[in-house]
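Example record for the data management plan.
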Amino acid sequence: MLYRLVNKLKKVIQKYQRSRLAILLVFAISITLLFILPALTQSPVTLNLLMTAPDAQPWPSIVKDFETKNPGIRVNIIEGPNATNLIEDLYTSAFILGDSPYDLVNMDVIWTPKFAAAGWLLDLTDRISKEELAAFSPKDVEGGRYEDKLYRIPIRSDAGMLYYRKDLLEQGGFEAPETFDDLIKISKALKQQGKAKWGYLWQGRQYEGLAAMFIEVLQGYGGYWINPDTLEVGLDRPETIQAIQFLRETVNQGISPPGVTTYQEEETRRLFQSGQAVFLRSWPYVWPLANEDDSPIKGKIAIKPMVHAAGKSEGACLGGWGLGIAKSSKHPAEAWKAIQYFTTVEAQRSFILKAGYVPSRRELFTDPEIVAKYNHYPQLLEVVDSAVLRPAIAQYAQASDILQRYLSAALTNRMSPEQAMQSAANETRRLLGTRGES
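Corresponding structural encoding:
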């Protein structure tokens, strides 16, 4: 194109030679070239985005659609380790070194406070209206805030829930449980009838999944971990002790396996999927696996929000992922365009149909095309609506480590619940600088 323009300019000059028109034409074409030349030679902007390899699998087609609609922008998906904590470490290291290669930041909900408090993220508050945010699940939006500013737009949700064998409950004449007492009662009865080996499976190993599981039981007893607004710690309150005692009793009464305090998600899923248990506390990823053609429990399960104590409300630990923009990015405008596209109804529907992700946009839970493939999504919306967030504090990782250590000690009978939670509360208060030991 540039070659043709230059040749045309030569011919015009030759035709009009010394005339005033030739001079004007030369000037006009020169000005045109001044603006066209950079556009012809400028390379597309490339946005780097780091995520786990499994999470990256459904992205290529959505990225291709975005790049087709935005020819001046490329999105480079960098596949990192499969473990999310290692992805967090890679982001953290890059930001601390001060020359981060990442433009878009794919964040687990619990990373937002840490990254925002450290000054690693752009404030997105003024880039999106309240009306636009209203289309997303409120808890997912809240999970992107830190100190009343928005740093993360939810791209997919996640929430803990209670799976149950609807066939076994029907055979025993039971309705789905609503309370902890209901769960214990049904589990005992179906075990005695020989319907299942175990009543209830949960994640008891000392890791982040333990904190996620526990916050649901704690909510169900009316307790709390840390109030992010006041930094008040509730670990040594009676409700917390009740929550621990419930979990201990499931083991003591033979409702949960003795080894449950060493289980993570996959150990519990495999036991449940093999038909050995009535109830399972886990995440949405279990549903498609449990309903595969070779699964012994295909078509035999249902879901609901976690049970609770009488007179209290249920809680589903909020998980999920969202996109932010690195403050060090040289292309914030292009990064925002990418976020806008990847969180559209069109892009989210594609993600869901390809990978079974949980949407962050409310309307997609009842979208006919999605429900035709995943008929449990309307019930999943009920779970997401009961979501409870882990404390949105900058020191979350350290606070979670404290809870995990002492909670594990209480669940494995190395400490009494009262002693463990008193120590956990004191250590957490020292971490937050609120007050000394009580």
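Summary line stored alongside the record: The CA atoms of residues 62 and 347 lie 7 Å apart.
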